[in-house]
Design a protein that fits this description.
Blueprint: H1 3-16, E1 20-26, E2 30-35, E3 39-44, H2 47-62, E4 67-68, E5 71-72, E6 76-80, E7 85-89, E8 95-96, E9 103-104, H3 117-131, H4 135-146, E10 150-151, E11 160-161
Antiparallel strand pairs: 1-2, 2-3, 3-7, 4-5, 6-7, 8-11, 9-10
Length: 164
C-alpha cells in the first residue's frame, strides 16, 4: 500500500538533500517518515488528501500559528505539489496532527446540523467514547480551529495527543 508514497517521499528527500531515517506514522491517507534533520516527511496517497493537508498548513503558516489551546501544531517546512509530499516540524504531546481530512471554511455535514440528526448524534457519541473524559477539551480545541476556518475531520486519539 505504501510503496508509491514511499518512493515519492524518498524522491523528495533526495531532491532536498535529506536522508530518511525511518517511518514514524502512517494510515489510510499516507505515510510519515523521519528525516536526518528531525523533520517529518508525509507522502500522501492521492492529490485530494495532499491538497487538504497542504492548504491547512499554508493557512497555519500564514497566521503564524504553532500552538492552539496549548496543543502544538507542526510547522510547515516545505511541500512539493508534484510528489504530493509535505515536510513539517515534528512535535511532542500535547499535539494535533493530520489535516488530510480537514475542511477549510466549511464544515462537513456530520459536524453541522443536518437533515439527519442521527448522523450527528452517532458522530458525537463515537468521539465521546474515543476521548472519554477528555471530550470537553477536544470540543474546545475543535472550536478554536473553527475560529481559523479549519474544520478537523480525522478526530481520534492518534491525532490529538495529551501531555499526560
Amino acid at each position: 500500500m505504501y510503496s508509491e508514497p514511499m518512493r515519492r517521499a524518498e524522491e523528495y528527500a533526495r531532491r532536498r538533500g535529506l536522508s530518511i531515517e525511518g517511518q514514524i506514522g502512517g494510515g489510510t491517507q499516507g505515510v510519515v517518515l523521519r528525516t536526518n534533520l528531525g523533520t517529518a516527511v508525509k507522502a500522501l496517497l492521492d492529490a485530494s488528501f495532499y491538497v487538504c493537508e497542504r492548504d491547512v498548513y499554508l493557512r497555519l503558516r500564514k497566521l503564524d500559528i504553532d500552538k492552539i489551546r496549548g496543543f502544538w501544531v507542526p510547522r510547515l517546512i516545505n511541500h512539493h505539489d508534484e510528489l504530493l509530499v509535505i515536510e513539517m516540524q515534528t512535535v511532542h504531546p500535547p499535539y494535533v496532527l493530520d489535516f488530510a481530512s480537514a475542511y477549510l471554511d466549511h464544515p462537513p455535514s456530520y459536524m453541522e446540523d443536518s437533515d439527519d440528526a442521527q448522523v450527528r448524534e452517532d458522530w458525537e457519541k463515537e468521539k465521546e467514547d474515543q476521548f472519554e473524559d477528555r471530550w470537553p477539551e477536544v470540543r474546545s480545541l475543535i472550536s478554536a480551529f473553527r475560529g481559523y476556518g479549519i474544520f478537523l475531520g480525522d478526530l481520534n486519539p492518534r491525532n490529538i495527543a495529551f501531555a499526560d
